[in-house]
């Protein structure tokens, strides 16, 4: 029987139909849906390959006395885990055990992993890889609007816009079917892309009179302040909207006064006429100026900086100044990356949050969630540590000595990955649940084989805030065990006072109760309702509520209902150029691969397209270095070295190189990246650091 579900990878969650094949796998066919409109990218088309990959894990593995990972029974694996947890917590308290989750887990699993950490392990030490992806936009959105939902409007709304300004988002490569929604704006010549590289998305500006602004890495905030300066100077801001719906405009208006175009050009390298043209184009599209509508979208390029929350705040300020937010046909949004990047950050995986986006230090929130879990409120731990700090503390005195990793590969995806590997190696017990032997699983003491996307039931929340059903189309190998079952079993063995459901349908019912009344209210979400084909966007407080495709139309989710502008000041990148590191390193994704590449590197068709890392370098810089296409370059930061072949391209600035981050070992660009984090969001500065580049 064909089964309707969604792609395992990115947040676009393209709809697909899976038809079981005789070999135990499934055949993938795209399905029409408002986001992908019948499209899939190469990753989606080939996603079933991983289900039957010879490299997938089919039994638990336990590290033996000789240091080798060997096959074990589930009882042996559980025994090792329970003994390790008990020993660590008896010696050093509950926080001696930590949990690291992932933005690809279903909502049901994102919810249960948070409950497992707090109610079964009693630890505050839980965070997840979404801290690396969306946390700065979440912090900025929460601060400005009182609520963080990636797109507070359906993606299809972009179709009617006169202008779309994309800051640091390469959606043409990361989620190609989404480009269909830019067709209208490209035809109208209204697409503006801010990116230090002429990415596939930036190239889309060329066929219809759009604009590509190519600033120095880390200078997006200056571009945004410069644009706001020009809007103010031209009288293009929407004063009626600002007076009626926004606080903080006077301070923000004053803060952009110093960013006149010539000064912006000196800092960013963007010619004044290009900046002026972009400001004119974007302002004219705003409804307050008689335009048909304008959207401002940010991605990881804006966020992954030591001051990314401020950059996103500058983008939100610009959108508010033009009166775009909370208006049909215009808006601001963050393009979420991971498959369940949105739902994954709503249900309690974050160090300081309980389900429903509740704050863990809010007494009322604690009491509500404790009652749902059937535990004493005092038994719930307080806030833990954000991901980079958590990983940094592993194996150190006072830090966790046991770590559970679910749905993440921090040995490749963490900043300063060499240091992350050292900290993982210093643990007394590393437990990794995965379906492939990822680079993190290779370091583990216990590896637990878990199902893949087409073998599980649950829900995901897409970049639009739409809750989608993930459905089982294939059976897992017999010894594979679902995470919900694993957490249930371990909780029982550890004597947890809380009961853990194993049926995803029942978990969703519990999640609905736990999130009810919270910011991310799933009170009216249920599998049966979604199975009926009804699109449900949160917040959806009860079963009769239709859901909320468009947010903020009447009021913002702040206490007084008004959006909050916050004045921000540009700061230099944390690891800036110096004589022995005179080139900026930019990292990012490729069309063929997803995140750390643990899955997509198993797909031959994708590996044929991009089999290894490379260094994208401008011909001018290549000539200065004396290297030609294909010659190996050694790229060194103050944290490590990567060697990869040069790929010459005028798509990159001559003062930068670009290396994709999907590859492990000596090609892992995160050996070079900077673990400095944003003080508000805890997000690391993946996007830029200073490097030396020499022929290898
Ligand atoms: Fe769609 Fe993203 Fe899957 Fe590609 S990876 S098919 S864009 S959901």
What topology does this entry show?
Blueprint: E1 3-6, E2 15-20, E3 26-30, H1 42-45, E4 61-63, E5 69-71, H2 74-92, E6 97-101, H3 107-121, E7 126-128, H4 135-145, E8 163-167, H5 171-174, H6 183-187, E9 191-194, H7 200-203, E10 211-213, H8 220-234, H9 239-245, E11 246-247, H10 249-255, H11 261-268, H12 272-285, E12 294-298, H13 300-303, H14 308-321, E13 331-334, E14 353-354, E15 358-359, H15 363-373, H16 387-393, E16 402-406, H17 410-413, H18 417-425, E17 429-434, E18 446-449, E19 458-461, E20 466-470, H19 483-493, H20 504-515, H21 527-531, E21 536-537, E22 563-564, E23 583-588, H22 604-609, E24 615-617, H23 619-625, E25 632-636, E26 641-648, E27 656-660, E28 674-677, E29 684-685, E30 689-695
Parallel strand pairs: 6-7, 6-16, 8-9, 8-12, 9-10, 11-22, 12-13, 16-17, 17-18, 23-27, 24-26
Antiparallel strand pairs: 1-2, 2-3, 4-5, 4-18, 14-15, 19-20, 20-21, 23-30, 24-27, 25-26, 25-30, 28-29
Helix pairs in contact: 3-19, 3-20, 4-14, 8-11, 8-12, 8-14, 11-12, 15-20
Iron/sulfur cluster binds at residues 7, 9-10, 12-14, 36, 40-41, 43-44, 175-177.
